[in-house]
Amino acid sequence: MSTIALVGNPNSGKTTIFNALTGANQHVGNWPGVTVEKKEGTLKINDKRYKIIDLPGTYSLGAYSEDEVVARDFIMKDNPDVVINVVDATNIERNLYLTTQLLEMGTKVVIALNMMDEAKGKNIIVDIEKLSKELGIPVIATVASKNNGIDKLIEKAIQIINLDKKTETPISYGKNIDEQIDKLKEVIESSSINNEYPSKWLALKLLEGDSYIHEMIKENNSSHIFDILNDNTDDAHDSIEPELVIVDKRYEFIGHIVSRSVKKPEVEVTTRS
Ligand code: GDP
Ligand code: K
Ligand code: MG
């Protein structure tokens, strides 16, 4: 049975979409080892069944909370066949930050651009086709609370499951960090680290100072990787911390895309003399 995971910021509409897809065929439990709620259900379309997972709402996929680790571990280790990334259309920039991290993971993604009714009310105009083209992944407009766009969304998700190609939208973090990623990637690949995670992603997380991945590498007796990491960070000593550059470049990537595909009303500036 293929698996479809719902990922998105809190209150973006994940559970509304989950309910629309699974109806009464759902089950609520807990993720092993943590108190985070696990919502699972099934969807039946044309005699085919799909497992639907409602992942905890997060703004990021780092190691800062149990929710983030549960969500990213599910994506990395359980390999859902496709991720539906629910994006709140009234707050596109912030929501796309999570999207950039899904793209970094190399997972198949389709965006449900939700809350389109509220976006309209706020005069936010989205060029869906352009947004989709710039991100390199399908974008479907939805109003989940009115069940609008859900059929089209699931049709697109299933279509992607059946495609061979993985979605890859490379984000450049600048010459310096891109080179460090490549170097670390090579070392990781020639080490004995488990390959549950793609090595390029591990390299990125190491540079970000991800505590969970650092711990995993320590436990793998691969501490020689830290020597390389330290060497690299020494080289770049005069520049700012890599994790700050990485965050910055993600926002730069988003800003570039949003400036081309989203029109918002100008904020009125009142001046007094
Ligand atoms: P989650 O935290 O991502 O699971 O978000 P929920 O599915 O719980 O939705 C948060 C709130 O937004 C709920 O009150 C929903 O009824 C509402 N909601 C969901 N989708 C839409 C939408 O497209 N438009 C509007 N106006 N409200 C929505
Ligand atoms: K909620
Ligand atoms: Mg929810």
TrEMBL record:
Q: Which part of the chain is the FeoB-type G domain? A: 1-163
Amino acids binding Mg(2+) 1: T22
Report residues binding GTP. Answer: 8-15, 33-37, 54-57, 114-117
| Chain residues that bind Mg(2+) 2 | N19, A20, G23
Query: Can you say where in the cell this protein is located?
Result: Cell inner membrane; Cell membrane
Coiled-coil residue spans? none
Q: Which family does it belong to?
A: Belongs to the TRAFAC class TrmE-Era-EngA-EngB-Septin-like GTPase superfamily. FeoB GTPase (TC 9.A.8) family.
Q: Main role?
A: Probable transporter of a GTP-driven Fe(2+) uptake system.
- Recorded protein name is Ferrous iron transport protein B
| The species this protein was found in | Proteiniborus ethanoligenes
User: Which residues of the complete protein appear here?
Assistant: 1 to 273 of 670
